[in-house]
Write a structure and sequence with these properties.
The chain is mainly beta and 151 residues long. The protein has one helix and 14 strands. Helices cover 3% and strands 53% of the residues.
């Protein structure tokens, strides 16, 4: 059965560096964490050494990763090391982003945005994990090292 997480049911907390807020949806002992960030202004990301980050914004943004400018279209996932110097530039105004952090060497993961109408046509009996963001759901995939699902 599909598991569906709703960020609005979670109280936002400040980012570790105080530059924004997030809603932590899962913190799995298998080595991964899932959250939804409220992007209200341009900001630097917190440093998370040893983790790989997958970031999927729901608005167009530009990420500045270790000095490289990387435009990221809404609904498109991008990955980068947690210890990289990263800042987000909001080119299309405020919005939200889904963040998946995985412990390097223990697990890996991915995020895929799916339009609600497409999601409604899927077989939801499969053991999948989704974040419900209204018109868009984000599919979350996490695999433990060696290929089996992490949780």
């Amino acid at each position: 059965m599909a598991r569906i997480l709703t960020p609005d049911a979670v109280t936002p907390v400040p980012w570790r560096n105080g530059a924004g807020s997030t809603r932590q949806l899962l913190d799995d002992p298998a080595g991964w964490r899932l959250s939804v960030a409220d992007l209200d202004q341009d900001a630097e990301f917190s440093d998370f050494p040893g983790l790989d980050r997958t970031f999927l914004p729901l608005v167009d943004v530009v990420l500045h990763i270790d000095g490289e400018r990387r435009p990221v279209a809404r609904g498109t996932a991008t990955t980068f090391p947690g210890e990289a110097s990263v800042a987000v530039e909001l080119v299309a105004g405020p919005g939200r982003a889904v963040n998946l952090m995985t412990a390097r060497g223990r697990c890996s993961g991915g995020l895929t945005a799916i339009a609600r109408r497409e999601w409604e046509q899927r077989d939801r009996e499969q053991p999948e994990l989704f974040v419900d963001l209204g018109d868009v759901l984000v599919e979350v995939r996490v695999r433990a090292r060696g290929g089996s699902p992490a949780s």
